[in-house]
Amino acid sequence: MKLLILIFSICISLTSFAKSYNLSIRDKTVSFSGEGKKAMAVNDSIPGPTLTFIEGDIAEINVTNNMEVETSVHWHGLILPNFQDGVPYLTTPPIMPGKTFTYRFPLTHSGTYWYHSHTGLQEQRGVYGSIIIKPKKQKLKYDRDLVLVLSDWTDEDPNEILRTLKRGSDWYSIKKKTAVSISDAIANGALGGLLGLWKMRMPGIDISDVYYDAFLINGKKEIQYPEFFLDGLFLEEINKLEIAQQWF
């Protein structure tokens, strides 16, 4: 029995294909709002490159830190060994300046996922990208893949944004001209609702509680694909927060 198990394990390892990527994280100046701001990029791009695999592959990803601060990469949504998860000081060591860390793990399932820094607020500065794991057996018929990463950008320092949110300030609502005054709430019979929102430290109207200077599709404010003519579309959109699937 032990011999059979050993032979079976060897067969699995021989049939798995190791696919490698090299990622370099470095500082970059961007101007999404028209004003130059410091950011962080993966392979000089925001978002970083799409990492494409096939279910059953062995992912081997070499991440080099070319910044003066430590960094990390977390593989969001993937089932993998705990040490490869990429959360610094919890599961995986941080990647120190000038160092390279190799993540290596089997891909046991298919789907659309994303990766991002788990160090401080580096994700908000641009350290993120998409992951596509194609199934071994294709279930859907289509002509071509198109990866769309939906993200937002603010010129403000993410640490200052966090401080503002913790203070419960209405500053971002004022900037978006969506702040609700007490007099308006009383006039519309909504004072109780407004006070309830304030109790939960939530803004009066907004779903989004931060003012953004730009909304991006694959790192651009506008992008066109004239080569595509669609009579049907299955969309798995990566919005940096969750995956939404829709039929069109």
What does the model show?
This protein is 18% helix and 29% strand. By secondary structure, the protein is of the alpha+beta class. Among the domains are: 16-136, Sandwich (Immunoglobulin-like), CATH 2.60.40; 158-199, no CATH class. Strand 1 (18-30) and strand 2 (37-42) form a beta hairpin. It starts with a helix and ends with a strand.
Q: What's the CATH superfamily of the domain at 16-136, by name?
A: Cupredoxins -  blue copper proteins
Mean pLDDT: 84
Q: What topology, given as strand order, has the largest sheet?
A: 2-1-4-6
Largest sheet: 4 strands, mixed
Number of strands: 12
Q: β content, as a range?
A: 25-35%
Residues in helices, as a percent range: 10-25%
How large is the radius of gyration? Answer: 22 Å
What is the CATH topology descriptor of the domain at 16-136?
Immunoglobulin-like
CATH architecture of the domain at 16-136, by name, is: Sandwich
User: What's the shape?
Assistant: globular
| Count of discrete alpha- or pi-helical segments spanning 4 or more residues | 5
Order of helices and strands: HEEEEEEEEEHHHHEEE
Low-confidence stretches: 1-14, 241-248
Distance between the termini: 52 Å
Q: Structural class of the helices, strands and pairings?
A: alpha+beta
CATH class of the domain at 16-136: Mainly Beta
SSE blueprint and pairings:
Layout lengths: L1 H14 L2 E13 L6 E6 L8 E4 L3 E8 L8 E3 L23 E7 L4 E6 L11 E7 L15 E4 L4 H10 L3 H5 L6 H6 L3 H9 L14 E4 L16 E5 L4 E5 L1
Parallel strand pairs: 1-4, 3-8
Antiparallel strand pairs: 1-2, 4-6, 5-7, 7-8, 9-10, 11-12
